[in-house]
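Action item from last week, closing it out:
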Amino acid sequence: MTYQAIAFDLDGTLLTSQATILEVSKQVIQQAQAKGLKVFLVTGRHHTAVRPYYMQLGLDTPVVCCNGTYLYDFKNDEVLAGNPLSAEQATSVISQAQAEGIHVAVYFRDAMTYEWLNPHFEKLQKWVASCPENVRPNVHQIPSFQAEIERGTTVWKVLISDPDLQKMQKFVEKLPLDQFSPEWSWVDRVDITRQGNSKGAMLAELLQRENIDPQNVIAFGDNFNDISMLSLVGMGIAMGGSENEVQQVAKQTIGSNNEESIAEALKQLLAL
């Protein structure tokens, strides 16, 4: 098999538990690039939260963001393709979640926002503060989601989180699937985007733009929101410890994100 590209999920996959990229992973990615392979990041993150890693890796390719809601070009600060929530959809999800006491964050065109802090965003803000200023993600508190929506600001996704998983599950089950695409991005977090969005669908569009057959792509992922991507490509690889549903669609399962698993897999597949 002649591979042409590698697609990486970030959290739980390319990133360690300390939100860093292993040096050996960087080295192998550079070797793959030297052989002519394209490297794509396919993530649930907002593009401003991708930038620190994008710059570390020296990439120049578009990024699939917010679980396939949009395709972003860093060089030109341009959205190449996107399917955001409508103002009505965003308002509906936000109001329903807040009425049930579920924490809400909203990912607008250029920022990740919250009205009040929860433990997840406290941890996120500590990471943001640790990033160099020139690549620091845009995460901040705002007084009102609704005021921003009424200004016409693009809404990529609504992120809901709660330690009561049963409450979360019930909320997700009530969402009309002809309007929304909910994806569990972590054990206690769900990304809610417009119906039809997925990592696999937007990666397929990106590959078409790049004239790359999905069968010639290696992809790494670890969570439910990676299933569409892993099933799309020729070599879908699940990280060790990922859910059974993820491993079942993958061609192989490797070690954890804290080990040299990705580097070893790429060395073998690409004969590096």
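Closing note: The mean pLDDT is 96.
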